[in-house]
Amino acid sequence: MPAVKFPGRYDSLAKIADLVKKATQEFGLDRLAAYGVETAVDEACSNIIEHAYGGEGKGEIEFNYRIKDNFLIITLQDTGKSFNPKSVPKPKINVPLKQRQETGLGLYFMHQWMDEVKYDTAGKTNVLTLIKRKG
Amino acid sequence: MVIQHTELKRCDVINIKGRIDSATAPKFAEVVNEIIEAGRFHIVFDMDGVDFISSAGLRVLIGTQKTCKRYNRGEVVLAAVPETIMASLELAGFTPLFKIFKDAVSAVGNF
Questions:
Q1: Which of B19, B20, B21, B77 should we substitute to test contact with A (largest number of A Cβ atoms within 10 Å)?
Q2: Do B83 and B52 form a contact (C-beta atoms < 8 A)?
Q3: N or C: less crowded end of chain B, CB within 10 Å?
């Protein structure tokens, strides 16, 4: 599939989700696994807009996917600030309501739903690769 | 996302349809805040028509639950949660934090 560019705005998320659904259908994932991939990509794109660009309308998100053997490989590229995933603490999941933090779930979801999450920076471009294995 | 709010005698029911993501969660939060500002803290989120929820939507759920449960003045309960949304709730560790009912009618009956 040729790469598709979207404006870095939250109203792009639903359009990106449509492409993700197409990709997971083509790859043959079941409904729940497909939903997980949709979630991971949505969280990744929201993070790009909020953290890499620091808000809406500051840059683009380039979406691409390919299927290789048993793997669906999705890439998201942006030209915002690069991101150090180690700087984000893991959310505390099993704690009482009062102690629940309201942030940090996005990155956690990406790692839970995908088999591999990779961050690379090439020049001014950040490349996030999300890999889902079938079966 | 389409939101419908019904004010009942003992609680408020919010029926949500479509996607709750970073684009739509602020509208969801706005509707919820209006109810809370009116001093009403017993709320049913009817999730029957929700086909996607991201962490932005989950933040609204947990934030509302914290606000409503403060001073034991109320509670948020969930109804008709689709399987995919339930998977996200479980992954986030939210299922022990909300009563979950099979449909809106039984959720309303809880109050």
A1: B21
A2: no
A3: C
Q: So what's the ipTM on this one? A: 0.95
Residue B71, number of CB atoms within 10 A of its CB: 7
- Find chain A residues with C-beta within 8 A of B93's C-beta: 93-95
* pLDDT one-digit tens code per residue, B50-108: 999 999 999 999 999 999 999 999 999 999 999 999 999 999 999 999 999 999 999 99
pLDDT digits (tens, 9 = 90+) for A14-42: 999 999 999 999 999 999 999 999 999 99
Q: Which residues of B touch A9 (CB under 8 A)?
A: 23
Per the structure, how many domains does chain B have?
1
Dihedrals φ, ψ of A82, to 5°?
-75, 160
Q: Are the CB atoms for B24 and B1 separated by under 8 Å? A: yes
CATH value at residue B48: 3.30.750.24
Cβ contact (<8 Å) for B22 and A10? yes
The CATH code for residues A4-133 is 3.30.565.10
Coil, strand or helix at A134: coil
Q: Which domain holds residue B79?
A: 2-109
Confidence of residue A88 (pLDDT cuts 50, 70, 90): confident
